[in-house]
Amino acid sequence: MIGLVIVSHSPKIAEGIVELCYEMVDEEIKIIPAGGTKDGRIGTDPIRIKEAIEKVYDEDGVGIIVDIGSSLMNAELAIELLEEKVRKKVIILDTPIVEGSISVAVQAYISNNMEDVLKAAEEARTTKKLQEQP
Amino acid sequence: MASTSLLLEIVRNMSKNIIENKELLTELDRAIGDSDHGINMAKGFSAVHEKLGEMEGKDWGYILKTIAMTLISTVGGASGPLYGTAFLRAAKVVEGKGKIDRKDVINMFHEAIEGIKMRGKSDQGDKTMLDALIPAFETLKSAYEEGEDSKIAFKRAEESALKGVEYTKTIIARKGRASYLGERSIGHQDPGATSSYILIKSINQVLEKN
After folding, report:
1. Helix B191-209 crosses helix B4-20 at what angle (to 10 degrees)?
2. ipTM above 0.85?
3. Cα end-to-end span (Å), chain A
4. Does some domain include residue A89?
5. Which of A7, A8, A37, A51 to mutate to test the interface with B (most CBs of B within 10 A)?
6. Which residues, including other chains, have CB under 8 Å from residue A6's CB and lie 6 or more apart?
7. CA atoms of B78 and B122, how far apart (whole Å)
8. Is residue A134 part of a domain?
9. Chain B closest CA to A110's CA: distance in Å?
10. In 3-state terms, what secondary structure has residue B22?
11. Which residues of A are catalytic?
12. In this complex, which of A41, A45, A70 lies closest to B73 when CB atoms are compared?
């Protein structure tokens, strides 16, 4: 089953999103938070991200969802630090961290297909919350 | 030829200077960023300083890789992956080497800059550390090509880095938190360029003493 890593500057955001996702899917799908630095500050840590990827790793693939600024850089660096076999299966999903994570978790749970997951991530990026005003 | 004991002295001096300039870097970052650059850099280089003993007697590649991994795992902000990548790329050039020559210095510096460009998706003129590092590198390279020794070459490189820092006051930030400020970032000196200048100055100070 596809695994997910939620990367946020805030550990609380990352943990909260994982909690939200598990409202929708069960623990058959692995979703792990990688938020904050190892000493509990606001920030992101490539080593923690790398370890989270390794924990959720499955041949079906791993999706990473990031929040702002350097979280992307640190996720990219984490991927570079992985061994080849794992690295090939990891993808960063370009999607809003809250809505996107939920959509992606649900999609991964339903079809367990990375192409579908990419599509779900893309859709979450453009979904409007308000209807167009007439 | 430069030995690893010289490198360790440089690393010690880098740590000292970064920690001493924690307030300055934080102040600069307060003006245009999220005011964590000084704290993050001091945190990273304190951790590097603690590992000096462990690096003793190891080769250039090992030492630079240890610095990279330490910065990557302790800094937390954008400077961690950027400087971490720079040191990691430099480490690859000198893997297993006990001594290095000028060609290695040029190659390390070049790879470090390419690493930062790749990681930050940035280039000269974006108001980043590259605005200090690229002019410093170009000056260093031409000084070597003119046959100057490392002392003179790094002295000139430091001067170019400082000019680069001054230049960042005149341009708009295009990367990081500062880019949200747009034109309001003009007039402020870039914290990343400043820390890069401090690192180059740290090399120069050690070379001057030796």
Report:
1. 140
2. no
3. 43
4. yes
5. A37
6. A14, A17, A18, A21, A31, A32, A33, A34, A35, A65, A97, A101
7. 13
8. no
9. 34
10. helix
11. 9
12. A45
When divided into structural domains, chain A yields a total of: 1
CATH number of B2-209: 1.25.40.340
A69 and B177: CB-CB below 8 Å?
A: yes
Render pLDDT for B159-191 as a digit per residue (tens, 0 to 9).
999 999 999 999 999 998 888 898 999 999 999
Read off the pLDDT of residues B69-86 as tens digits, 9 standing for 90 and up: 999 999 988 999 999 999
* β A3-8/B99-100 pair status: unpaired
- For residue B132, which of B150, B151, B109 has the smallest C-alpha distance? B109
Half-sphere exposure of B46 (CA within 13 A, CB side): 12
Decide if A110 touches B, using CB distance below 8 A: no
Q: Which domain holds residue A13?
A: 3-126
Look at residue A131 and tell me if it is in a domain.
Answer: no
Q: What is the pLDDT of residues B108-149, one digit of tens each?
A: 999 999 999 999 999 999 999 999 999 999 999 999 999 999
